[in-house]
Amino acid sequence: MWLLYAVGSAFFAGVTSILAKCGIRKTDSTVATAVRTIVILIFSWVIVGIVGSADEISLIDARTLVFLILSGAATGASWLCYFKALQTGDINKVVPIDKSSTVLTILLALIFLQEGISIPKAAAVIVIAAGIFLMIEKKDVEIKDSRGGAGWILYAAGSAVFASLTAILGKVGISGVESNLGTAIRTCVVLVMAWLMVGIRKKQQEVRQIPKIELIFICCSGIATGASWLCYYRALQEGPASIVAPVDKLSVLVTVVFSYFVFGEKLSRKAAAGLVLLTAGTIAMAAL
Fold first, then answer.
1. Which residues of the chain have pLDDT under 70?
2. Structure pTM?
3. Which of helix, strand or coil describes residue 144?
4. CA distances in angstroms from 27 to 34, 128, 144, 158, 218, listed in the order given
5. Span 154-181, pLDDT tens digits
6. 105: closest CA among 276, 238, 287, 285?
7. Is 267 helix (H, G, I), strand (E, B) or coil?
8. What are the φ/ψ torsions at residue 136 (nearest 5 degrees)?
């Protein structure tokens, strides 16, 4: 059953990227992240109410709570980086780099969670890494954008690093708490972090200036993210992080397909070959 939850997480995560891209064409990415987190927070606590796990808050021990908070902080950092990268880069380039967190997650799971890695699994990791490498064009590797700020590829890389930390910290943090409740608690942390960044950057006034159509897309992306999270952390609770994380990363297929039809973004032959390797390695990882 956990594998089905992981697949559901991948689908909703792929849809999230498309909806988010539509919602940040004019809206600042940090502001959009803060707004959509409100939607996710409401979504997650409604689910907690439905499953009736709210009363378990008092049973959460200090260690679990600390890891949930750390996982939420890592998620917030990953989101801020990811949506900044989406705003300035092509979605079918940003997403593969973000999905490179798969490789790092597997390595961290091996080190900190003692999840073993066999020779076939190691081979699958190499195939995934090769696929990601092929999807990154030489011209994409720019450390600065046209305005002299950090280039989108740096934000995408930062998103990948924090996403891998999210998976590991989340796996530890939900070991002693109902998955939906854990997701809701983490979302509270993300909300605080996102709005704190809005305050630091003095972007509060821009919230009222968000175009209505973009606000709709931002809210829809929040709903999709909430659904992805609920599936993902339920899968993490029941299955190994070294397999759940790769399956979740298949969302890149959903994103690439939708980016072609919605934004007209096409993959080069090299990038397409990389996508095939990335997919094949991920499927092999899930099957091992």
1. 137-150, 173-175, 242, 286-288
2. 0.78
3. strand
4. 11, 33, 21, 21, 10
5. 888 899 899 888 888 877 766 678 878 8
6. 285
7. coil
8. -100, 115
